[in-house]
Amino acid sequence: MGQSHSVGFGLIVVVSLRITISPDEKITRARKMEKKSIVILTAIVVAILVILSLLFVVFGQSTKSWTISIIDKSDGRGNSIAVDSNNNLHISYDNSTVPGPLRLGYATNIGGDWTTSTIVIAGNLDFGTSIAIDSKNKAHILCNGFDGDFDSVKYVTNANGDWAVTTIDSHGRIESSRSIAIDSQDKVHVCFYDYMNGHLMYANNTLGNWITAIVDDDEPVGNGASIALDSSGRICISYYSRDNSDPGLRFAENINGIWNVTTVDNSWGSGQYSSIAIDANNKVHISYYYGQDSTHGCLKYATNSGGTWKAYIVDETGNVGKFTCMALDSKNSVHISYFDHTNRSLKYATNSEGSWNTYVVEKGNISDLFSSYGLYSSIVTDSHDAIHISFFYKYGYLEYARYG
After folding, report:
1. Are residues 138 and 251 in the same domain?
2. Is residue 133 domain-shared with residue 44, that is, in the same domain?
3. One domain, residues 33 and 129
4. What is the CA radius of gyration of the chain?
5. Which percentage of the chain shows pLDDT scores above 70?
6. Which residues does 178 contact at the CB level (< 8 Å), separation at least 6?
7. Is 144 helix (H, G, I), strand (E, B) or coil?
8. Do 178 and 251 sit in the same domain of this protein?
9. Cα 259 from Cα 235, distance rounded (Å)
10. Nearest partner of 290 among 334, 322, 318, judged by Cα
11. Among 2-16, 233-247, 295-309, 345-359, whose mean pLDDT is lowest?
12. What would the pLDDT profile of 55-103 be if each residue is shown by its tens digit?
């Protein structure tokens, strides 16, 4: 009896509601429920986006697609990458697996697939190349040979069709100090380290023949040199000074024929493996390695984009930052490839999201001395801001990674 009463009361309530709620009230309540649903749905979407953003920061591009391929299994040390006006890639590298004449390797994907060729250069094996592409999409390569008792700086180009080799200087060492740049008139500018005298050297062929000059003679200075030109043709060079009285990262610029030298970071050990780039506003950006001792080091970055030079630590997880190379994209964001010695891995850093983020591109095996990725890495961005990295795998391969 009590149970029947309870059910009857429920029926009365339902009937009452149907009688007392007007159509307008129904519409009002429905709209309120719709607004609440929209608010709840919006909150859920925002929460999902926040979670995805946090996941990107934590895992970043290591969870995205780096396309990695092997270009040459014969060698790949001292590699350098450049992009032409058609977004085709060009890579120079050492292709000498045994002692003997220097064999310069050249790879390109102009036809779609990667093709490689070899240029034999007189002299014995010594690592180090740097490549630049002119307005006609011809390659200009700086490499290092060994002629008799002296290292020599070699210039190789296919500007006139066939590959031609010229000796620029017969006592320069560019194993970690190789750098070449092309100006708006397709003239070539290079810098290198004269290890015989401990000087930073500069050379150009603007008048036809090669002319060399001393940039900095505070012995020993010039290792890890890198060169770039701004839109006005100003020549800028970053390099490492081991001068006890003024050590660290230095920056040299040529203004009206005079070289002006500035110490950017005077920390002892700062400035090794430097890489320089100049943005659309003619501001300078430099990545480099700060070697604190034989087992500890970090990746650093310096810029004068704010008017004065400022230096920052980008990555200090383990011993990281050797073989650094830098490129800028169309938004003047910085992209850096470098070697993680602790984990024997190729790493990548960028400030394209506003703050610095670092990622592993190719992970090595810390238990295998030869399973090291990222030695001699080189980076470039194309007109679509895709990222391209060439690097050496210590088992003897030239490899290539692409993102975007």
Report:
1. yes
2. no
3. no
4. 29
5. 78
6. 78, 80, 128, 129, 130, 142, 143, 144, 192, 225
7. strand
8. yes
9. 9
10. 322
11. 2-16
12. 444 444 444 579 999 999 988 989 999 999 999 999 999 887 666 677 8
| CB of 82 closer than 8 Å to CB of 90 | yes
> Of 344, 377, 317, which Cα lies nearest the Cα of 129?
377
State the pLDDT at residue 187: 98
- Note the pLDDT of residue 368: 76
pLDDT above 60 (res 288): yes
Domain identity same for 250 and 127: yes
Query: How many Cβ atoms are within 10 Å of 85's Cβ, its own excluded?
Result: 11
Q: Which tokens belong to 365?
A: 């095996």
Q: Give the pLDDT confidence score for residue 149 in this predicted structure.
A: 57
pLDDT tens digits for range 231-264: 999 999 999 999 888 899 999 999 989 999 999 9
- Give yes or no: residues 399 and 360 share one domain: yes
The Cα-based distances of 82 to 37, 145, 247, 365 in angstroms read: 53, 21, 31, 29
Tokens representing residue 73 in the block: 């299994």
Q: Is residue 64 part of a domain?
A: no
Per-residue pLDDT, 152: 83
| Same domain membership, residue 33 and residue 89 | no
The full DSSP string for 350-391 is E-TTSS-EEEEEE---TT-TT--EEEEEEEEE-TT--EEEEE
Bridge partner residues of 249 (DSSP): 240, 265
Nearest to 153 by CA among 171, 176, 133: 171
Query: 47: burial class by Cβ within 10 Å (0-12, 13-18, 19+)?
Result: exposed
0.70 exceeded by pTM: yes
Min mean pLDDT across 3-17, 38-52, 203-217, 262-276 is at 3-17
User: Is the peptide bond prior to 220 cis by the omega test (within 30 degrees of 0)?
Assistant: yes
Nearest-CA neighbor of 130 among 286, 325, 346, 303? 325
Distance between CA atoms of residues 110 and 115, nearest Å:
8
Residue 145 domain boundaries: 69-403
Looking at the fold, whether 96 and 13 belong to one and the same domain comes out as no
Q: Quick one: which of 234, 232, 265, 237 has its CA closest to 178?
A: 237
Residue 163 identity: W
Helix (H) or strand (E) holding 167: strand 164-169
Tokens of 88: 């085709």
Determine the Cα–Cα distance for residues 14 and 324; give it in Å rounded to an integer.
Answer: 76
* Residue 61 DSSP class: G
